[in-house]
Amino acid sequence: MVFEPKYDGFRMLVFAQPGGEVFLQSRSGRDLTGSFPEIADAAAALGEDVVIDGEAVIHTGSRLDFGALQQRLNTRPPALSRLERAHPAHLVAFDLLQHAGTEMLTWPYRERRAALQSLFQGHGLAAPWALTPSTTDRAQAEKWLAEWSAVGVEGVVVKSLTQPYQPGRRGWLKYRARHTAEAIVGAVTGSLARPQSALLGRYTSDGHFLMVARSTPLSARTRAELSGLLSPAGADHPWRDVQFSTHWGSREVLDITPVAPQIVAEFHADSAIDHGRWRHPVRVHRLRIDVTPDDVPLHPEQAVTDPSGKADPPEHWPPEGRLTAG
Questions:
Q1: What is the pTM of this model?
Q2: Top-tier CATH class for 9-132
Q3: Which residues form the ATP-dependent DNA ligase family profile domain (predicted)?
Q4: Which of 280, 198, 283, 209 is nearest to 239 (CA)?
Q5: Looking at 6, 159, 174, 310, which residue is catalytic?
């Protein structure tokens, strides 16, 4: 088996032809060519027939920024040019599916990986290209999980060295890094008597209460315990007139019942965090009746626009070359 980091980005297939024709495709088949001109230009500059599988990422400050990737979608050219200059994207390549007229889907992984390394070395590829690390050493993969989750690596992908590429199938194993954290129950779906899931928040240093996570459906035991602890929200609850979406990127409004922010929940979550908010639903592990909201860590300092946790775009960018080939 071989291990590779799992990045917090957009899965992307890069199709390029010798004449400079390029097509960038999302996992769902969406055309991303116009949204990532720096990657399209780099692919056109190869001057070869290639199909590369990889992950588009944007690095902001000290971590990968999924929100910055989303800003690229449906953005008009003038604004897109500004985003490209301020927050350039990279393509972290992890598979080569075709090169110089030779289709490689049936090749074993180890041979496709060797061909991908040769492509990088032959062209001296650098930013916006990056070649993902790969290892057969389990200890090294565990080190990535321990040390890289803070910068936006969500976990590891496990592949077989002899495995062919299998389009449209889940042929790889994904292992997400999980972390334990605490937040305050600020609202629930369902009712106070029968809560179904929880919306969790944290306070900022200046007293604003912001959403940081939404839970998966609560276990029967947690629902029963929580129903006996919840109190109705006061008229000044900051989420009373705030609308939350049913899931990340959706416009569908979630029906919630605000509650008094008094109960602390401990939860398990992955490392996909955008400006202090977990993107994927978290799993409530237990209620912490032994601690108070004052014991919960503060929300990270961000320029927040509303209590739902949405933040202004980040302003800082790492030095050139933070992601390089190799």
A1: 0.65
A2: alpha beta
A3: 91-186
A4: 209
A5: 6
